[in-house]
Design goal:
Two copies of one chain form a homodimer. The first copy, chain A, is an alpha+beta fold. Chain A contains nine helices and eight strands. The first copy, chain A, has two domains: about 140 residues, Jelly Rolls; about 55 residues, no CATH class. In chain A, a hairpin with a 5-residue loop joins strand 4 and strand 5. The radius of gyration of chain A is 18 Å and the shape is globular. Chain A binds a DNA duplex through helix 9.
DNA sequence: CGGAATCTTGAAAGTGTTCAAATCAAGTGG
DNA sequence: CCACTTGATTTGAACACTTTCAAGATTCCG
């Protein structure tokens, strides 16, 4: 038998079924309902999550009280407030289920024990973080490079499954503008057959 | 004797002087002059850099031909186009010396050999990437959270050394606005004793 | 000193936001 | 299954923030 986590690990490093089974013991499964928080800004959290099923988002509350979404996680992505998890401090970000979600959780002590027992996992997580870091840099690039309408088009072409699974309000926040403006963009783009205006 | 690289590694993982000396063999030192490129957008690059001395910036050319700076590296930071380095593809970003810089370089094959010979370095780089990823997420947070004037103040308070070492033009680009607007902000802020207007 | 790049200034034009109200969609309890 | 309540999306007008462009002042470096 092969779990999603096992499969994901095996994509990056060679691993035996026995190792995978032992690694799984460091995690515990959990279910979250739509709109439920896995992590809440300002609170202590010491868990890292692997998404087995569902969609999560990370967000925070801006100066003027809006929810600003900064990333999504779908199946086979890792998610947490890394700064809080790593340093054991209160969370800067909240993590919430957008759909009912099924995740694997690992506490900080278990994470340390896991890395000690299976040093090969250092390599796996090195790769995971390297990839996440790269993605985050590209996110910054897109924010600056594209006009808002192009950014919207880019994202909905690149991740159509994500766009379909989330409310527009949250998409607008992720893209960096208001829901009202997203409405206007959609209207404008519809007129132009899905091409940016410029 | 203890090099900056050795010291930085030792901050994260236990390491003997002998190991450190062997690790150093996988790197070669290089000097770059102000404005010289370590990596050029569109070209192949297969090196990762550790900054011993100087300031680097990463940037790309936007749709409308401007240079958009997306991050800096000062002493003890790692820098490269990670996506290009990792996948062996052409670079999306350029990396340039803002001051004369002294760096340690490692090629992709040497990196792989290093990780094979010293698996403990997987842990070190896992930590480095984890930290870089966290920083990148905070960068995105600040972009969305702060008004432009607050973002400017935040950055110049958080990294005064960096601000002093780079031209305003590049700072403006990093913060996400035009040099002209930065001029206005500085004028406005000067009138208000360094506090945001809002 | 001289040339080139950087920084400042101001006016005009865009881009995106805010606010308020109407419409639409979804989930809940009876 | 319907009626109700709540939340999400759309619309439009007024406004605010930021860019663009062009020109002048300043600084840097050889």
């Amino acid at each position: 038998m092969s779990t999603p986590l096992h499969q994901h690990i095996a994509k990056h490093i060679p691993i035996t079924p026995e190792e995978a089974a032992d690694i799984a013991l460091y995690f515990h499964p959990a279910d979250y309902k739509k709109k439920e928080n896995l992590i809440t800004e300002g609170q202590y959290n010491h868990q890292l999550f692997f998404v087995v099923k569902g969609v999560l988002r990370m967000f925070f509350i801006t100066d003027n009280g809006n929810e600003q979404t900064i990333q999504f996680a779908i199946e086979n992505w890792w998610m947490t407030d890394h700064d809080a998890f790593h340093k054991g401090i209160t969370a800067t970000f909240s993590v919430q289920a957008i759909e009912n979600a099924e995740v694997l959780c690992i506490t900080k002590p278990n994470m340390e024990a896991l890395l000690k027992a299976h040093p090969i996992m250092e390599r796996y997580f090195r790769m995971v973080y390297e990839r996440a870091y790269t993605a985050s840099l590209f996110r910054v690039k897109y924010i600056f490079d594209y006009s808002k309408d192009r950014f919207y088009l880019h994202f909905s072409n690149a991740y159509p499954e994500v766009v379909q699974r989330i409310p527009q309000k949250i998409l607008a926040s992720f893209l960096g503008f208001t829901p009202e403006y997203l409405s206007e963009l959609r209207k404008k783009l519809a007129k132009n057959g899905g091409h940016p205006i410029s």
